[in-house]
């Protein structure tokens, strides 16, 4: 089973890139069903990642990044490199998908995906808005095509 999770805030322009790709993949899978693939739009709910990924062999996470790199830069990173145990907090808003990777592996052990890939697309605009910048939209198209290729070659 392959689980794909898009993360981000749909109201903050380029931050929505993971959510938008996930929604495009859901539409694709309606037209081209693959019984071994699940796609979720988890928005900003890091805790959802744990439960949606459980039982999958592979996990792909898609999100925006802010690293100071060139807008639209795409980073494909093994999930192991990004896992981070959460800092003590009173709010689940502070629990992100990188925390979910570490917590999911600790809680579910062998029932959590061993193969995790994270696609990060460098955001240029995080202001209030519902449109991706043209550069991030182009990068989203490239990541979408790469993931379709992964789905079709399983």
**What would CATH call the class?**
Alpha Beta
Structural class, judged by helices and strands?
A: alpha/beta
N- and C-termini, Cα separation: 10 Å
- The CATH architecture is 3-Layer(aba) Sandwich
Query: How many distinct domains?
Result: 1
Order of helices and strands: EHEHEEHEH
| The CATH topology | Rossmann fold
Strand content: 15-25%
Trace the largest sheet across and list its strands. Answer: 2-1-3-5-4
Strands, total number: 5
Sequence stretches where pLDDT stays below 50 over 5 or more residues: 89-93
Q: What is the global morphology?
A: globular
Whole-number average pLDDT? 86
The radius of gyration is 15 Å
According to CATH, the homologous superfamily is: HybD-like
Report the biggest beta sheet as strand number plus sense, adding barrel if it closes. 5 strands, mixed
The DSSP helix count reads 4
